[in-house]
Structure formats: structure tokens, C-alpha cells
Amino acid sequence: MAKRTLKSATVTARIAPKLEKKLETYARFHEQSKSKAVEGILKEYLDYDGWAVQGIREAIASSDRGESVSHDEALRQIRAHIAKRKRERRRAA
Fold first, then answer.
1. What does the alpha-carbon distance between residue 74 and residue 72 come to, in Å, rounded to a whole number?
2. Among 36, 17, 12, which Cα is nearest to 26's?
3. What gap in Å lies between CA 18 and CA 58, rounded to an integer?
4. Nearest C-alpha neighbor of 58 from the set 49, 67, 71, 47
């Protein structure tokens, strides 16, 4: 079976010496090259950031449609939930 080579891109970035030291430590701890460490860190960050931004956009759109509750109502619901859980725990004890 022929070995497939994966394409990659080269990215050059300037980082502070303290950050480079952290990267070296991170890469060594994870037993990988700095390049692989940067790739993994970027992937995780970009995946998380994309998820967070999408959630924020959905929340804004929901609010724009009037599908949100006021801060006071949210607190009321939270307090009611906490009180219910306390009652359930007392009954279970």
C-alpha cells in the first residue's frame, strides 16, 4: 500500500520569548514537536471559538425575536429551582 502524504501549510508567527518557553514546555510534556503542539492548540481554540461565537449569534437572534427573559425573571427561576432541590434533598434525608 502506497504511503499517502498529507498536505500542510507553513505559518510564520512572532511570539514573545516567554510564550515560546511555555510552548516548548507544553510540547515536551505532550511528547510532540512545537509544530504539532501549535497545530493542536490552534485546532482546539478555533473549534471552541467557532462554537462559542455560533452560540452567541443564536442567543442574540433569539433575543431579537423576543424569545428571552428578563434578568429578574431568570433569577426568579433559578431561585425557584434551588428551593425545589433543597426541598427534595430534605425529603430524601
1. 5
2. 36
3. 37
4. 67
- Predicted pLDDT of residue 37: 97
CA 78, 83, 88, 93 dihedral sign is positive
The whole-angstrom separation of Cα 51 and Cα 43 is 12
Least Cα distance to 37 among 16, 18, 49, 20 occurs for 20
Beta carbons of 49 and 43 less than 8 angstroms apart: no
The total of other beta-carbon atoms located within 10 Å of residue 37's CB is: 19
Say how far apart CA 2 and CA 15 lie, in whole Å: 38
**12-71: pLDDT as tens digits:** 999 999 999 999 999 999 999 999 999 999 999 999 999 999 999 999 999 999 999 999
| Cell numbers 510534556: residue | 29
Instruction: Say which residues have a Cβ less than 8 Å from residue 23's Cβ, sequence separation at least 6.
Output: 15, 34, 37, 38
